Amino acid sequence: MTKTSHEADVAFIQALAELLREHDLTELQVKREYGEDDSLDVRVSRSLPAPVAAPVMHAPAPLAMPAMQAAAPAAAPAEDPAQHPGAVTSPMVGTAYLQPEPGSDSFVKVGDTVTEGQTLLIIEAMKTMNHIPAPRAGTVRRILIEDGAPVEYGAPLMIIE
Q: Does the keyword Lipid metabolism apply (predicted)?
């Protein structure tokens, strides 16, 4: 491998790392073909920092408890759309488009009834437009992404009930 091609590969990998950061992705994998038996396989990934737990502050125990004390209602846990039974998740990493072309109507809107196999959106990956079909018939309850947004594998896209 020549020094020039090595420097080009390093620049290519740095550009991939920049894409990872700019689009807030956690992983990117690319195969670069140079010739018949010459290629470069690159996988760039990063781990997101774990959330830091706030220190628990304990109040001193009261001296006497009142006879009847109402329990505070428990806070409802935040709903994770990916865990919803009607979630449609991304089958790939790419850019999601809700319309077949700029300026046209969206494939679906919230409240629309869809049939199994109907196109919900397009995900562009590696310059290829991939139509994402409805996995089942139902009603579109939520659209969880914006047009032109980067998506990762497994990311929730819509909720169909």
A: yes
